[in-house]
Amino acid sequence: MVRFLVRRVLFGLLVLWIVSGAVFVLFFVAPHDPARLIAGRLATPQTVALVNHRLGLDRPLPDQYASFIWRLLHGDLGYSYYSSAPVRQLLASRLPVTASLALGGAVLWLVAGIGLGVAAARRPRSLVDRGGAVLMLAGLSMPTFLVGLLLIYFLFFRLHLVGITVFPPGGYVPLTQDPAGWAQHLVLPWVTLAAVTAATYSRLTRSSMLEVLGEDYIRTARSKGLSEDRVVYRHGLRSALTPVVTLLGIDLATLLGGVIVTEQVFGLPGLGQLAWQSVTTQDLPLIIGTVLVASAFIVVANLLVDLGYALLDPRVRPS
Amino acid sequence: MTRRAGVSDEVLLRLDGVVKHFPVGHGLFGGRDADAVHAVDGVSLEVHRGETLGLVGETGSGKSTLARCATRLHTLTAGRVVFDGHDISTLSRSELRPYRRQLQMVFQDPYGSLNPHRRVGSIIGDPLAVHGVAAGGPRRRRVQELMELVGLNPEHYNRFPAEFSGGQRQRVGVARALALRPRLIVCDEPVSALDVSIRAQILNLLADLQRELDLTYLFISHDLSVVRQVSDRVAVMYLGKLAEVAPAAELYSRPRHPYVAALLSAVPVADPDLADRRERIILAGDPPSPIHPPAGCRFHPRCPKARPRCLEVEPPLVPRAGDGAAHPTACHFPVEPGENLAREAGSAA
Amino acid sequence: MTVTAPGQAAADAAAARPGAVQGRGPWQLAWERLRRDPVAVASAVTLVVIAVAAVAAPVVAHAVGHGPDDQYSDIGLTPAGLPVGPSRTFLLGTDNLGRDLLVRILYGARISLLVGVLATLLATVAGVVVGLAAGYLGGVVDVVLARFMDMVLSFPYLLLAIALVSVFGSSLTISMLVIAFFSWAAIGRVVRGQALSIREKEYVEASWSVGSGALRVMFVDILPNLLAPVLVLATLLVPAAIVFEATLSFLGLGVPPPTPTWGGMLSDSLAFYQVAWWFPLFPGLALLATTLAFNLLGDSVRDALDPTAGRVTEGGGG
User: In A152, A189, B79, C86, which residue has its Cα 20 to 30 A from B188's Cα atom?
Assistant: First the structure.
């Protein structure tokens, strides 16, 4: 058990190391000149060289990499070229936005998805079931930005025309500052996220539920005279939810790394937008920082999921 | 005792101290094994040309593993396999190829042993294709001959396995095994997955083919009554080792090993009076794990006759007092004629 | 001497019909099921229409007289410089630069379909090869390849895609390669799992006992039996690839302008949706229709290949 844990942690660290290395290499392979970008288009070569030197970009590659790794091990992610602020601070300031978005959206899609999935499983091939299937396919087929656009159009623009300004088209208000404003600004993004994801969860719940409801112990519960509701919710749902929880872990981790598109559409200053910005400004430390954080979330989530499986089901425990 | 016509003294297949262990568990990065499943732990057997040697055992006895060791589908952990005088124990797959023409196998599962995406003609002709024996028209003709030989309609050459019944599929498996005119066929539970009414047909088919084509069989099964029907000699395995080997009639009338005696007492008997009078020997406990076989005689935890010696010393497989050279038993205190094990074990009358 | 089985009689009677002994394999059966599925047929037809329209884009452009990059600032824009709506000259209206939206959408279809299908094809081939090798060969090869696939699947793909594209520049080829790179591991994993389980089947053992070599077993026994899930996965990956491409274009990282892409058009329309509803609507509909059709088709293919609900299985005997 411990061996398994150690193995997975080591592997996770390996992944992170390779990812950071890959980004590092990528950055230096590509034609780039952040110094110029920072110095400005009209800067003289001397100025550019000066900026280059200040940023440490004129040092030999292995040298830069070595110092990068060294600082990384000390938890120092460096300074952003563009914003001249510590990367760590930038990341930390954006995280709450992305977290609000991801978690809120998750609650929404879980409720919708699981609810619909269970309803569909209880009445297979009914209107609810088939309707759910269609919804799922529609959800799968739509890029997030399209959903966002539609929502902005209908729930902001059209309502705005009529004089209702409930849903703002973007921007972020911190929770601590104004809870109502926070929620108000996040409703449309939440619905956007949920619309695309709920469908997958509903189908997953449905198929998992169907499998579980076919088991013998459910039959026993029914024959004991328990109400159908109790059978489904108390006995069936518990085991049916395992794959859902797994998926949730992975999805949340992926989202926490930055919901680039949704943040872009709704103008939310989260990790996604930061990542986007870092790439367009060729801000290497920031790029590496965001990529590392995103990968770290995914690696940790995978580890937790594997661990969860091993704990829940002793059969799965690797020998 | 008389031997069936067609059976000779010549040894076609010899297994010499065959050992097969499967590693269980792995280290930090997939390294050494901590434990191993002792599937086969030192089995020596001889199969004579023209005979049918039945190999019986319960699940976990290692009989299927032994079958696969004999045909070199597994690599041996230790021991030798000698086929027709040639030592094939450590040959690589490409070196083994020519021997495959003479040493074939029929598998247990009629549903799993045929590739659902291939037509039966192609399946049966596969050996011919692999060994470059025939192609095109001649191959097709040969396949159709084989189909007729096993009782299938040659016009069904282009059908898929899903369109055949279980018994017919097994015939396809037999036809495939016969394609290269082998000398020895290892049958791994060929009728266990079939309806009882169909078994007789397939067993008769195998018997007829043996006579016609001068075949030798190693016939694996867990079903004593089936083995009795087809075998000249019978070997009984328990937990990776042989318990007893004897000519069929002798084994069934005078079993020496307590395990064999217990098995035979459980075989259903048609005559209700006889069944009533017979006492079943009930063995205590479940078969132990092949990962940690018991010390001494492997059967001692369940044996009604177990004595202290049985826990310490492993009994060799040798003929016991009163038996001929053809009837070795691995037991320190074999069942004596007239002994009633049921009384000792606790019986169900 | 033959021992004929009883069930033969009925089979023989059936065989008497000419052409009746051809036999219907798993693929033929699946095809028949697919053919009878109205949803599958409808989606397939839709996709064919879209494909034809994409191929015929130059023809249409010639017919209406507008190229995809021609900016008609006089008739294509209002005096205030905003796009004009659907009319006889511009069937679907114009975009913010006065370009014919219909023609642009048709050319955009080329990009989407090309990238979607080719990227998926590339990913599928790579995934099958790697997965098959890993599953069949086992041992060290499997460990290394499987770990590699796990690693690829752990990457935050959109993020890295953006990084890659911004580093290497955006182009059709780069888009395709990037999308393929992030999709192949999903197929590879499935193929590996399938190969591992098929390898244990008795017919594979039978092939070994007959003397078949590794290559023959891989291609004759294992590959045909794992094509079904691969096909389903691939059909469902195509719309994902199309969405991925649209997202990249939306972010400005796809095929560079002025080449029309649906994502790019949607991105441009963001600033104008309040005054030009057709600008985001038609490209959006085109995107939706394409991906929906692929997804529905993929679902139907899955049902055709594996109709689990209420199928009666064969019994033993005869």
Answer: B79
DSSP, collapsed to helix, strand or coil, labels residue A319 as coil
The whole model's pTM is what? Answer: 0.78
Contacts of residue B336, Cβ cutoff 8 Å, sequence gap at least 6: none
Cβ <8 Å between B28 and A319: no
Nearest CA in chain B to A7: B28
Pairing outcome for strands B318-319 and B328-329: antiparallel
pLDDT at C313: 25
What confidence score (pLDDT) does residue B176 get? Answer: 94
Domain ranges for chain C:
28-305
Q: Pick the residue from chain B with its C-alpha nearest to C225.
A: B117
Determine the Cα–Cα distance for residues B3 and A301; give it in Å rounded to an integer.
70
Kindly state whether A303 is in contact with chain C, defined as any CB-CB distance less than 8 angstroms. Answer: no
User: Are B186 and B81 within 8 A, CB to CB?
Assistant: no
DSSP A127-148: HHHHHHHHHHHHHHHS-HHHHH
Taking residues B56-61, what's their average pLDDT?
A: 86
Mean pLDDT: which of A83-87, A103-107, C272-276 is highest?
A103-107
Q: Are A206 and A214 in contact (CB under 8 A)?
A: no
Share in percent of chain A as helix, strand, coil (round to 5): 80, 0, 20
Contact C317 B149 (CB under 8 A): no
Q: How far is A313 from chain B (nearest CA, A)?
A: 18
- Strand-pairing partners, residue A171, are none
Domain ranges in chain B? 11-25+52-231, 254-348
Percent of chain A with pLDDT over 70: 86
Report DSSP letters for A156-196, one per residue: IIIHHHHT---S-SS----TTT-HHHHHHHHHHHHHHHHHH
Q: Which residues of B touch A7 (CB under 8 A)?
A: 28-29
Is any Cβ of chain C less than 8 angstroms from the Cβ of B32? no
Could you count the other beta carbons within 10 Å of the beta carbon of residue B38?
22
CB < 8 Å to B116, chain C = 25-26, 225
The count of other CB atoms within 10 Å of the CB of residue B121 is 22
Q: Decide if B156 touches C, using CB distance below 8 A.
A: yes
CATH of range B11-25+52-231; options 3.40.50.300, 3.40.50.150, 3.40.47.10, 1.10.645.10: 3.40.50.300
How does strand B52-56 pair with strand B216-221? parallel
Residues 234-263 of A with CB under 8 A from C: 254, 257-258, 260-261
Query: Does the CB of A29 have a partner CB in chain C at under 8 Å?
Result: yes
Residues of A in contact with C166 (CB under 8 A): 279-280, 282
- Interface contact flag, C159 A264, Cβ < 8 Å: no
Structure confidence at residue A165 (pLDDT): 65
| Residue B75 sits at the chain C interface (C-beta within 8 Å) | no
Contact B25 A7 (CB under 8 A): no
Task: Provide CATH code, domain C28-305.
Answer: 1.10.3720.10
Listed by number, the residues of chain C in 68-97 with a beta carbon closer than 8 Å to a beta carbon of chain A are none
pLDDT digits (tens, 9 = 90+) for A195-236: 888 877 887 888 788 777 777 777 887 888 777 777 777 777
**Could you report the per-residue pLDDT of B149-194, keeping only the tens digit for each?**
999 999 999 999 989 998 999 999 999 999 999 999 999 999 988 9
pLDDT of residue B30: 46
Q: How confident is the model at residue C2 (pLDDT cuts 50, 70, 90)?
A: very low
Contact A145 C266 (CB under 8 A): yes
Please check whether residue B205 touches C, CB under 8 A. Answer: yes
pLDDT (tens digit per residue) in C109-124: 999 999 999 999 999 9
Range with the lowest mean pLDDT among A79-93, B275-289, C63-77? B275-289
Residue type (1 letter), B179: A
